[in-house]
């Protein structure tokens, strides 16, 4: 049984465990040692009913397998780049809005077959790939956005809203602290700090590199299935914890929190999905965890840290170069980022989409159906926006800075 939440020494009320947004390995190991000393039988806990003892398949890997980047980076040929350029001109000549970018309006007669093969890797292979290298300097911000949407339409054409409060379907990942009056956006995506391993919403997260930092900013990817296997073998009690509801802070929304597991099993087969939402459990700077949200248990705190440190142990690291587009499965992988330093000459700037390929999509676990429905169908087409300039998502602004987010 999960260990209870400790009590505040003065009020006697449950208190949040000492678990910061940026993982502390010493605290994790001390918590693990303490919990195992209190209950040595924890590693003998049965797995939740129906969950596999071991996952198998190409999604189970360790980072050293991908040390050779030629195994996962696809360099676009001059012929393919010319095909992309013709698609840009074709779409611009049509006079259509960006909401109408699809496989027919952004035609790629030859490259589309290669993109389909790469998409299979997302859903039935290793779970990631990088397209390299689009000559971003030859295009305007609008055209680079069009290229990103056009290529993505041939990979995972259904996209989720980044910001339902204002209809934005496209995110800008860059250091935006200067845009916030408090100097903190409330979300690490808009700062230059590191990000622990986590999952984004939806099936696929993609990032288009428009600019590189002067130093740092490396991307890290890890197999969530490998992490699951490690836990199932050594700490099945934590698998059980992850499959039970966590109180997740909703930041500026009503109600202020949701109860949702981290771990889900797909219907009809042994595939599992881990929606690793660390920031919703810990808060971060301008968006701290509200006292009105029930605290985590010590077991939940240990499980969250275990996901990070096991992923860190066997991740693959990559440097996204300007013109690269990285596609990563949110279903079978975690991703993270190192901190970075910009300079006047070099500034890290990525575009982000959350995507889904309806033809290849895994069966959605019942507990995730409503969440995925909201993600991908909330904003009607006529209200969708594709901002060309960076802005902070409504939900990621410091608490109370954006009243619209409360209604999102």
Automatic annotation (TrEMBL):
Gene3D superfamilies in UniProt: Clavaminate synthase-like (3.60.130.10)
Coiled coil: none
Protein name, entry field: Clavaminate synthase-like protein
Keyword Oxidoreductase: yes
PANTHER family: FAMILY OXIDOREDUCTASE, PUTATIVE (AFU_ORTHOLOGUE AFUA_4G13850)-RELATED (PTHR10696:SF54), GAMMA-BUTYROBETAINE HYDROXYLASE-RELATED (PTHR10696)
Protein keywords: Oxidoreductase
Stretch forming the signal peptide: none
Region (Disordered): 1-23
Key word Cell cycle present: no
Gene Ontology MF term list: oxidoreductase activity
Occurrences of domain TauD/TfdA-like (ranges): 96-354
Domain of life: Eukaryota
């Amino acid at each position: 049984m999960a260990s209870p939440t400790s009590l505040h020494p003065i009020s006697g009320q449950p208190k949040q465990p000492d678990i910061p947004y940026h993982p502390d390995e010493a605290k994790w190991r001390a918590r693990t040692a303490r919990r195992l000393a209190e209950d040595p039988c924890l590693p003998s806990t049965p797995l939740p009913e129906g969950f596999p003892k071991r996952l198998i398949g190409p999604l189970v890997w360790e980072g050293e397998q991908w040390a050779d980047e030629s195994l996962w980076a696809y360099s676009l040929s001059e012929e393919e780049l010319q095909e992309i350029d013709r698609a840009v001109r074709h779409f611009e000549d049509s006079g259509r809005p960006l909401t109408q970018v699809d496989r027919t309006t952004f035609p790629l007669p030859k490259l589309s077959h290669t993109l389909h093969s790469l998409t299979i890797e997302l859903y039935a292979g290793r779970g990631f790939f990088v397209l390299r290298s689009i000559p971003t300097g030859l295009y305007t911000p609008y055209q680079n956005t069009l290229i990103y949407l056009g290529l993505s339409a041939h990979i995972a054409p259904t996209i989720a809203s980044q910001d339902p409060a204002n209809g934005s379907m496209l995110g800008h990942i860059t250091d935006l602290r200067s845009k916030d009056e408090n100097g903190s956006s409330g979300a690490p995506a808009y700062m230059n700090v590191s990000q622990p391993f986590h999952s984004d919403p939806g099936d696929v997260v993609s990032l288009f590199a428009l600019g590189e930092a002067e130093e740092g900013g490396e991307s890290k990817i890890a197999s969530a299935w490998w992490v699951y296997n490690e836990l199932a073998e050594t700490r099945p009690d934590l698998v059980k914890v992850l499959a039970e509801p966590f109180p997740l802070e909703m930041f500026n929304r009503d109600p202020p929190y949701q109860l949702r597991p981290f771990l889900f099993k797909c219907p009809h087969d042994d595939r599992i999905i881990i929606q690793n939402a660390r920031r919703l459990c810990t808060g971060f700077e301008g968006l701290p965890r509200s006292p009105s949200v029930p605290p985590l248990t010590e077991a939940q705190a240990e499980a969250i840290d275990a996901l990070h440190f096991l992923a860190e142990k066997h991740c693959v690291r990559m440097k996204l170069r300007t013109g690269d587009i990285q596609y990563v499965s949110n279903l079978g992988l975690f991703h993270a980022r190192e901190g970075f330093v910009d300079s006047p000459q070099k500034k890290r700037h990525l575009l982000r989409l959350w995507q889904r390929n309806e033809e290849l999509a895994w069966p959605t676990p019942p507990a995730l159906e409503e969440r995925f429905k909201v993600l991908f169908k909330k904003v009607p087409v006529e209200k969708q926006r594709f901002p060309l300039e960076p802005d902070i998502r409504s939900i990621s602004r410091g608490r109370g800075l954006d009243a619209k987010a409360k209604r999102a």
